[in-house]
Amino acid sequence: MDSAGKEREAVQLMAEAEKRVKGSHSFLRGLFGGNTRVEEACEMYTRAANMFKIAKNWSAAGNAFCQAAKLHMQLQSKHDSATSFVDAGNAYKKADPQEAINCLNAAIDIYTDMGRFTIAAKHHITIAEIYEAELVDIEKAIAHYEQAADYYKGEESNRQVAAYAAQLEQYQKAIEIYEQVGTNTMDNPLLKYSAKEYFFKAALCHFIVDELNAKLALEKYEEMFPAFTDSRECKLLKKLLEAHEEQNSEAYTEAVKEFDSISRLDQWLTTMLLRIKKTIQGEGDGDLK
Length: 289
What we know:
This protein is mainly α. It has a domain at about 1-155: Serine Threonine Protein Phosphatase 5, Tetratricopeptide repeat (Alpha Horseshoe), CATH 1.25.40. It is built from 15 helices and no strands. It has helices spanning about 5-25, 25-30, 35-55, 60-75, 80-90, 95-115, 115-135, 140-150, 155-165, 170-185, 190-210, 210-225, 230-245, 250-260, 265-275. α5 packs antiparallel against α6 and α11 runs parallel beside α15 (about 265-275). The longest helix is centred in the N-terminal third of the chain and has 22 residues, at about 5-25. The chain starts with a helix and ends in a 12-residue tail after the last helix. The relative contact order is 0.05. The model is unreliable at about 25-30 (pLDDT under 50).
């Protein structure tokens, strides 16, 4: 069946589901099997939603999943309701970001009510990503990453909060988070390798604010985590501090190039390293290459 046919069939299913719901409200139906009709309607809405998905009618799919979610709630089936709200959110993501957020928030409410904080955290991260990429509202993205971090107590979401804080020039907040995550990971044999990355990023945030602070922070990190001293990140920091002290932008660029030839710089590091480079006297906007 072509997608137009699927869509027609989905529309019929929606109408049929609506009839079942209305029928379940009548007095006699309420006494005899009202719930069965609601369950049938639920199933129809879900089938219609999947047909709309095949037809790539994302708003209609989102709406149908939403209807199913509300009926699941009526049937006291919280888990199924939350799952349908998430399905609705994922469909709406392709057509209506704000509606996607509303559905995911509804799922989060159910999951937190059930004490399922890890899964709620995951959906907070999805909302944060929609705010970041679709609605370009970084403040709200941070708020949802922070909520996820609270629920997860996890490294991943904390790292995101720190990265955004630094981009928004909230360096003190970024430093605190990077140091905290670095300290938590350095004692964990499985995560130890990533601690150097957090101390490196914390030091860069210090460096943008104040060169002396960066030096003191670097000494502190080496003392706390001796393995940091031999890392390429630590060696780069020392070269950058030296170049900055001598106000030598060529040496600064050279050190960055050398590092980049082995470990590619991501967008965040490039942004931070450029901000530091601009504090070398006489540097215009410039670049790092």
